[in-house]
Amino acid sequence: SQQGEEDPQALSIQEGENATMNCSYKTSINNLQWYRQNSGRGLVHLILIRSNEREKHSGRLRVTLDTSKKSSSLLITASRAADTASYFCATDAGNAGNMLTFGGGTRLMVKP
Amino acid sequence: EAGVVQSPRYKIIEKKQPVAFWCNPISGHNTLYWYRQNLGQGPELLIRYENEEAVDDSQLPKDRFSAERLKGVDSTLKIQPAELGDSAVYLCASSLFGADSSYEQYFGPGTRLTVT
Q1: Residues of chain B found within 8 Å of residue A92, distances taken between Cβ atoms
Q2: pLDDT digits (tens, 9 = 90+) for B9-60
Q3: Candidate from A31, A40, A104 with C-beta closest to B103
Q4: Cis? peptide before B25, omega within 30° of 0
């Protein structure tokens, strides 16, 4: 079973626009991570936010976490065609040694 | 630094045949994971190893799936016999879990299995 649910399932934007993806989860967490997957490839870790953090930045990425609402968002600013990929949130409940539960993903298409 | 290596990249077999996937994790990583990813969905954990011990295999269909991680390094995942519903991408990941863990998992490119 998958703990997280991403919204929207698919997103299409123009290059230069911002892309926002949301993730909701069900149980309490130790940390939440975002991964990117290009077509036919494995997942690549983007950013991790701990349960006691509310916002984190990495380059053009901004992640927020609201533990009271059990939700997180990933913002990609000034998107590029190369950002086209699927993005997954993954939760670590912290009770089983770095075990992640992934959501269903958001498929992002950035048109040049 | 070499990443997680998986082979084969693609495999097509007929139902009821056996199949095996191999994974070589990043050197020094003590934790290894096997995931299954169905089309359009996120990865689902099948089994997790800490060194050579399987510490979480609750999602592994034990009637047909088996895995091993000899010497706490390479790992093999086997399906025997394969069913049509086993068609998916099988991903291997590794991480260094412990006091200094960054909690990041490193994924291989996966093996795409098609059962006909």
Answers
A1: 103
A2: 999 999 999 999 999 999 989 899 999 999 999 999 999 998 889 988 888 9
A3: A31
A4: no
Query: CB neighbours of A29 closer than 8 A, spacing ≥ 6?
Result: A51, A67, A91, A92, A93, A94
Bridge-partner residues for A78, per DSSP? none
Question: Does A45 contact B110 at a Cβ distance shorter than 8 Å?
Answer: no
CB contact under 8 A, B42 and A41: no
Predicted confidence (pLDDT) per residue in B64-90, tens digit: 999 999 888 999 999 999 999 999 999
Beta strands at A10-14 and A106-111: parallel, antiparallel or unpaired: parallel
Chain A CB contacts of B31 under 8 Å are 97-98
Q: How many CB atoms lie within 10 A of CB A58?
A: 11
CA distance A32 to B103: 10
Mutate to test the interface with B, among A45, A49, A51, A108 (most CBs of B within 10 A): A45
Q: Report the distance separating Cα A67 and Cα A25, nearest Å.
A: 9
β-pair type (B111-115, B88-95): antiparallel
Sign of CA dihedral A79, A83, A84, A89: negative
